[in-house]
Amino acid sequence: MRLFVDTEFTDFIDCDLISIALVADDGREFYGERSDYDDATATAFVREAVLPQLGQYPGRVFTRDALRTDLLAWLTQFDGEQERMLCFDYAGDWDLFVDLVCDVPDGWLACHIGHALRAERSEAYFRQNGGRHHALHDARVNRYAMQD
Q: What was the pLDDT predicted at 148?
């Protein structure tokens, strides 16, 4: 079972997680936004491209601690899967995921998939659905771009 993970964050240097999404091979999804990220560290790009997209899922806004708890609880539904991989197209997404959960749950492997994504499929998805630079849309795109 592959889970495609994407994050949005304030800045490459003073990096604070804003949102995270995971989309499974079978379509199950997790999405959460933080209510307590440091807005002052957001770059102009983040203010223009990321922040206006927040709030689309009002029931999915958490403090950092509550987001961690909800995400870890959501991941338990995959405990019976023989092979479990967390797939990232950007190494910073892995770092932010690990920072959020503190200890990666047992049995999960990390896999960098940036080289395996089919760019033409990604662009086709964005043309049809929009949502570039929204963690949930970007995680969906990565799942779509890996399909045969």
A: 60
